[in-house]
Amino acid sequence: xxVASSGNLAEGTVVQVQADExxxxxxxxxxxxxxxxxxxxxGAAAPVLAAACGDPDAGRxxxxxxxxxxxxxxxxxxxxxxxxxxxxxxxxxxxxxxxETVDDLDPVRERYSIPEAAVGCHTSEVEGxxxxxxxxxxxxxxxxxxxxEFDGISVTGMPISSPGMGEPNGTPLDVLSxxxxxxxxxxxxxxx
Length: 192
What we know:
By secondary structure, the protein is α/β, with parallel strands linked by helices. Helices cover about 40% and strands about 20% of the residues.
C-alpha cells in the first residue's frame, strides 16, 4: 500500500517503506519472543517429560554411574575429623556413606586382610572391595567399573593433598592395589 504525501509520491513511498520495516521488525521481535518462550517452556518441561517417558536417568545427579547407588561403609576411630570430611567428599561425588565408629581399626583391618604396607587413615568397604585411606573417587570409580581380581585399593598414611585432607597441590598421589597380602601400584593422580 502506497501512501501519498503532499505532492511527492517518492516521499510517500519512503514513509511507507519505513513503516513496513518497523512493522516487520515488530513482527520479527514478537515471533522471536514467542519462539524463545516456547523453548524455555520446553527446556523446563524436559526432565518431567523424560521421567514420564520412563528415562531411568531423569532427575539423577551428574555423578558417574559407578557411584550412583553404591554404598560405602566407612570405619573410623572416634575423634578423627578427616574421616568425616572424606565421607562428605564421597557423598558429594554420588556415593551413599554409612560411618561406623570403632575403638580400634586393627580388628577391622585384620578381618579384611589389609597388608601393613597398605594401611591408611580409615577403612571402607564398597561393593565387596576394600578402600583403605583417603582414596580419590576416580580410583574408586575405576575399581568399580573394571572389577579387577584384587581385594582393594589404598592410599597409605594421611597425605596432606588427598581428599579429606586438603586440596590437590600437584604432587602425585599414589594409589596402591592389594591382594592376598601383596601390594602393587594401581594408579597415580595429581588432580581429583
